[in-house]
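Handout, page 2. Input:
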Amino acid sequence: TWQVYIYRMLPFFLAGGLYKKINRRQFEILFLCLFSSCTVSSIVAIYQFLNGNLRPSGLASHYMHLGGYYVIILPIFLAFLLDDISLDWFKYKQNLIIPFTVCIAGFIANNTRGAWITVSIVSIIALFVFGIRKPKKLLCGLIAIALCIGFVVNNQYLFLGVKSITSTTNLSNVERTLI
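Output:
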């Protein structure tokens, strides 16, 4: 239906259409709302996962929609946390660490393996790009990656999901490996 198309494509239209038409304060509010919506959806996905839903969808209609949302939002969120830009509400970056952690937990609980691969690769690249200038950020990022890997390895269901990524008996896994 057309609602699904608008839901999926709206961020791209907003980014292109509002690029030079909004001021700095509106830009800050837009991204704060974007991060807040991701955090709320992540809390719902974590709740669904803890209650036995192995493919939680959060506030999205399908778990793949939430995975696609994470693919777009998490690298932007990480870039804002790592970069030294001077937006007014980024003076308090430590306040964004908790919502980012909640989003990462929701991302892991979402169990969308294609999104896991994409966000992992982009996040590692961003971590090294921004971490070269600040070794402390690089160290914190590597510790966070190690904690996420440890969580996934210790959860039997999530670890089976990681192991299935390399299985070539399923066509979707082959496509996921090519990503």
